[in-house]
Amino acid sequence: MRRQLLSNVKNYEHCASCTLLACLCKQREGTRSLPRTFRRGEGLFRLGDQFDALYVMQVGSAKSFSNTVSGYEQITNFHFPGDLMGLEGFDKMVHVHSVRFLEHSSVCRISINDFNRALIDSDTGRHFLLSRMSHLIVDEQQLLLSLTKHDAKQRLVKFLLDLSKKHNQSTSPSQVFRLSMTRIDIANYLGMAIETISRLLSKMHAQGVIKVNKRQITLCDVDDLRAYLLASE
Question: Domains along the chain?
Answer without folding.
Answer: 2-144 (2.60.120.10), 150-231 (1.10.10.10)
